[in-house]
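User: I'm preparing a small set of examples for a lab meeting where we compare how different chains pack in three dimensions. I only have the primary sequence for this one, and I'd like the structure in token form so I can line it up with the others. Please keep the answer compact; I'll paste it straight into my notes.
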Amino acid sequence: LALGAALLPLNPTSGYFLSTVQSPNSPPLSGSSGTLDMHGRAAATFLLPPGLPSSAVGITLHHAYVVLQPSAPGGVAFASNAVPLTLTP
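Assistant: Understood. Below is the structure token output for the 89-residue chain.
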């Protein structure tokens, strides 16, 4: 997905991808939108609610981040590589 001069290595789907973009800082990605510290670092958390169906076990979700900067082309200064997260019991 091209975002200004950056390339976000994720497939924009109408499900999970869209919900994470439209509802930042909402479960399961609490703290997913924030400000970098003076060292250029930040952290996000991933917390699944209890009682997920067993069919969710083994699903792999890929996550990446972007650094927004109004002066950058398209407002995006950087996009990370995708990192997999596999749901386990």
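A couple of notes for your slides: The two ends are 31 Å apart (CA to CA). Strands lie at 2-3, 6-7, 60-63, 66-68, 76-79, 83-86.

User: Perfect, thanks.
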